[in-house]
Amino acid sequence: MAQRTIVGIDVGTTKVCTIVAQVHDSGRVNVLGVGLTPSKGLDKGVVVNIDDAVNAIATSVEKAERLSGYRIGTAFVGVSGRHIASLNSRGVVAVGRTDHEITRSDVARAVECGGGCGREWRAGDGGRSGGRRFSVSWADAVSGAWASQ
User: Fold this and answer.
1) Which of 4, 6, 8, 121 is most exposed, with the fewest beta carbons within 10 Å of its own?
2) 3-state SS assignment for residue 78
3) DSSP string for 36-59
4) Sheet holding 15-24, edge to edge
């Protein structure tokens, strides 16, 4: 049974929590380790002392690594506050491969296009006629999950 390890870090005003878990193909999740530490350097979600904030996050990550035995390289990070905003964008580009496989290069072009190119690209002809196309949202591009249309 295949499994992957994921890491989540919640940076809050009162505490920083890091969790390391294995997700199995069946959907089952096993928590391998948790690191919890009081938050420092934040006030209502805003960083007021970068050194204290970095130290609190590092301490939480180190605790989770120690308990899980997993070396953390990447993580999903949650932050909140009134200063947080988001912008949804959509980029669509051509996929010219005959096997219709979407490559990382295709995703990078779609993300770049989503920044404002505002047009749809189709395979082989610069968008003038039919062909294979796909779109990707910024969130999908960041997480590595995308779908062809």
Assistant:
1) 4
2) strand
3) EEE--SEETTEES-HHHHHHHHHH
4) 29-38, 15-24, 3-11, 76-79
35-82 pLDDT, tens digit each: 999 999 988 888 899 999 999 999 999 999 999 999 998 899 888 877
Residue ranges matching CATH 3.30.420.40 in the chain: 3-79
- Angstrom CA distances, 139 to 41, 59, 78, 142, 147, stand at 28, 28, 14, 5, 12
Q: pTM for this structure? A: 0.58
Longest Cα separation, the chain: 58
CATH homologous superfamily for the domain 3-79: ATPase, nucleotide binding domain (3.30.420.40)
Could you give the C-alpha distances from 90 to 24, 30, 117, in angstroms and in order? 31, 34, 10
Mean pLDDT (whole number) for 126-133? 41
Instruction: Calculate the CA dihedral of residues 14, 38, 77, 20 and round it to 10 degrees.
Output: -130
